[in-house]
């Protein structure tokens, strides 16, 4: 996984007022950092932009109808029709839209052909039920464990690339954004698009995306949206429950398998599920900002001067100095949450937002702080066993890891096992465990403090523990009275 450094917004790079993009209903995307949002094909016909809801939707339907038609013609895997369907369902990443799981400048490499064939087999199985609706491509992430929403988003982007390119070209012409002639992949059309030059000197064409066809990118275990759609339909709910019978606490994998079996049990149930998902689909709301994406942009554009402190961090002295720096950034975050109004950005309609929101907002503060003091920070660095939330480092030996957890999450496991595993993989003894307390921490703090104290008594270096009070508070102005 790549690292995030010096995020650059489209508006900043091409000198466009962010309010113009907002007025036009377009995402002010990061050019060098993928955002945890994705294009949901179920939102395309709901777009307020008639060009998207009409022309782009027609293009989407035709593209995947062609795949369905070819699969219907195929008599066995590997025949001419099947191979043609493979070409149509290319999983090579499309033109950049700044959305998805990746962090940093992506290489544009293709996903494994095995994954493409898995999707084709599932589509073929659905087709045998008699289903022909091209929007069923959106359901592949529910049925196949290795097919994520980012895959569906890329498939959709490739299908409607000409329309997104037209939209982008029109915007750039209207607001005098510089463009270059670009040949669209698999389309054979040339468009004039804005081009971002990466740090490696590579030119990357950019397409802009309407705000109302994107949604937050669910984490692998997020089941809430699907569950809501299931609960809204009695027939689907009952059928799924039949396959879950006997399981006291079914895992997400088991729920997906039950949903797959229920959906593929009959054409009627499958169609009802697809309709339920269409009705439940809703775009990412900037006003709610469940992931803190818009707050991230706001903080990154803020004046960094107040973040600068008169402290000399001699990072070359070793991990102790790096630890001091990392603790200072967390102190800044803690201060703004507990003593300012930043806690509001961590709540949504009386409910704590996803963990990702706190991580993105902390990153914005830490990045601003580090930039003001000429220091680097690497979010979501891969430590060999998965991504640690943040890594501060100077050279190979001076490394400090930061892991962040919501109070309702696996706090004890995160401190005792997860962070220690990352530290071992990173060959460092220095770690900081941050707990975002929304008022439901219970006795978890006592448990992890006991683990920490035991480690210290045995002469081992224990990870620091910092608790940030993110409970709802009166406004800062009222608290000053």
Highlighted features:
alpha+beta, 3 domains, two-stranded antiparallel ribbon, 18 helices, 13 strands, globular
Question: What is this structure, in a nutshell?
Answer:
This protein is α+β, with helices and mostly antiparallel strands and about 475 residues long. Helix content is about 45%, strand content about 10%.
Can you tell me about this structure?
This protein has 481 residues and is of the alpha+beta class. It has three domains: 209 residues, no CATH class; 66 residues, no CATH class; 188 residues, no CATH class. Helix content is 45%, strand content 12%. It has 18 helices and 13 strands. α3 packs antiparallel against α8 and α14 crosses α15. The longest helix has 24 residues.
Q: What is the arithmetic mean of pLDDT?
A: 82
What's the total count of β strands? Answer: 13
Global shape:
globular
- Poorly predicted runs are 102-109, 381-387
Secondary structure topology:
Blueprint: H1 10-13, H2 18-23, E1 37-39, H3 50-73, H4 80-88, H5 113-127, H6 140-143, H7 149-159, H8 161-175, E2 180-183, E3 190-193, E4 195-197, E5 203-205, E6 214-216, H9 224-231, H10 234-244, H11 252-263, H12 267-280, H13 293-300, H14 319-339, E7 347-348, E8 351-352, H15 355-372, E9 378-382, E10 387-394, E11 398-406, H16 411-426, E12 431-437, H17 444-457, E13 464-469, H18 476-480
